[in-house]
Sequence to fold (481 residues):
Amino acid sequence: MRRAGATWVLLLAAGCAEPPPAVRVTVETDLALPAEMDEFHVMVAASRSEAGQICTPTSRGFRLSRADALPLRLVIERGETYTSWVWARIEGFSAGRRILTRELVHPWPAEGVAEVTVRLERACLDRTCAAVDQCIEGMCRPLQMPGLLDDADRIDDRPCAAEP
Amino acid sequence: MTRRLPDNTRLGLLAAALCFGLPAAQAQTETETEARRLFEAGVAALTAGDAAGAAEAFARSHGLFPHPGTLKNLAASLEQADRPADAWQAWNELLDRYGSVISETARSEAVERRSVLDRRLARVTVTTQPPGAEIEVDGRTVGTTPLAAPVRLEPGVHAFTARLEGRETATAAANLAAGDNPPVELELPAPSAPLGTLLVESPTPGATAAIDGGTPEALPLSCELEAGEHEVRVEAPGYAAWVGRVRVDPAATARRVIELEPESPEIPAGVASGFWDGPWPWVLGGVLAAGLAGGITAAVLLAPGEPAEGDWRVRMP
Fold:
């Protein structure tokens, strides 16, 4: 019993030094940059419940001024409260006009880094899907959390962190 | 403006030439030969009553071959040409550079002439913030701040310019009278950041935009901003706000057309309360607690991962 307790103490102490679990989203495209897409925005949030109770999303825009600006990697690290899943919306723009949107919901890995790839595809450029769907590989597929940002009651006032 | 010299002055200058002039035997190089030729031209001009021409010749000669005799003749010529500020400068330089080697008579004369001229001039103390700037007065460089002495200037309007690499040039003008002793302080501001234009438009009726947390303004909104990234928030009643960062490049226009999405109707209250009244919060809480404990255990027991690398990193709360 005493040995087990000591092991837990050691494990917990060691665990504090480890990097938190993270989801790494790699954004890529088959569009020509920057001619066909010159900017994309990312909005991320995490939920503290399975059903979806998220922190106020944080967002950032990325200027795609060079042909090799993509792929680009976004690392979202898990915190202490919003530990259910992570949500991200990636929007591609051309001359200020939104041309592509992708959303993803991914559970936090127990440890380490979970890899997710989001491809902003030419096949979805002119594809219009219903509000509860999104275009993936040219096909309309159901969103995992449709309308997540539409219900203010599901969005906590607490902001989803700045960059660490 | 040139005045004919009295005979005694011309004799004095010629004597100065004899005392301080360039001996032919010492003029060994082409430069020295040219300096001597100019010196003799200056003496000839002075003898002919052309003080301005003489000053020009003596100045060029002194530039090629500095010599106290040439400088004394230059000072006297400038004074005769009614250029008191330049004459003061020449007499002053004669004392500074050659005061210890010229005769007592020549030194006394230089001190007297400098004092007489000083009463006809304004003395301007020029300072800059920061120091180290090159100062020009009426287009002529007079030194680098901090200047060793006030700048002597003739009465009238004068333009002051201060230049320093990495700073914006500062200028000032002053209307001076004889005996004035005004300070001229020039501040060289750091260069302002390059500017670009941000143009925000929206087809959404009533949309407003706030830049970097500023006051929302009606669209279309065009404003000149420092180059770099700026936060833009676009909102309209009944629509979900859009928040994003826009990069503004120097001397370019960044145009963004933001189409807001209508806010969806709220989920009926029963849906939410039903969820929280049921067993699911406890079930999920248990699952989360077990998952968290398991995650911690796994994170410790399994091989630790390296910090994830990325172009953008955020930490969730």
Remarks:
- Chain A touches chain B through 62 residues (CB under 8 Å).
- Chain A has one domain: 20-159.
- The longest strand of chain A covers residues 97-107.
